[in-house]
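User: I'm preparing a small set of examples for a lab meeting where we compare how different chains pack in three dimensions. I only have the primary sequence for this one, and I'd like the structure in token form so I can line it up with the others. Please keep the answer compact; I'll paste it straight into my notes.
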Amino acid sequence: MTQLQMLVARTRGAALIAGTALCLQATAAPTVSKFAPTVQLGGSTLQLNGKGTRVRLVFKAYDMGLYTSKHVSTAAELFALPGAKRLQFTALRELPGTDLGRLFLRGISDNTPSQQLTRHTLATNRLIEIFSGKPKLLPGDTFAMDFVPGKGTQFYISGQAQGEPVGDDEFFTLVLRIWFGDSPADTQLRDALLDGGKD
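Assistant: Understood. Below is the structure token output for the 199-residue chain.
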């Protein structure tokens, strides 16, 4: 078992415990956050493809917006779409950074063959380090993941870039699978992001 596989195994157990704890700590959340209709990224204008809210049991964790160069309505279309993309988030309650990083890793590992995951050990470890470096996100705090072809994935917390971009084009596909893979984090959120996120 590789170091990454051991980390994934520990993460699955820790994520289950963390997710339960996060739900128990949750309080009532506001409605879906405001997302700009367009953003500029990598020299391109991206449009808000959809927006939705991540819900664990009955508790709202974060709002999320998906930005793409043109509208897509299926996961297959999203994966095949070339060009820059943005995932924008707003925390709806307190989110411990370490727990968030582990939940993201779990989402990647649940939707990625182990051999493919191993190829991206450095990038996945960096994802965990970025969020673990933030003790917690508070309601209203923002974070984002920007992808520009040929440059990689740039992580932001509260509008501040977290180091240099990481990974390649394939790595961002792994990140997308957290929400759009065969075992998505939240099927209702996935559908909202792909159907325009209509209220």
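A couple of notes for your slides: The chain has one domain: 3-194. Confidence is low (pLDDT under 50) at residues 13-31.

User: Perfect, thanks.
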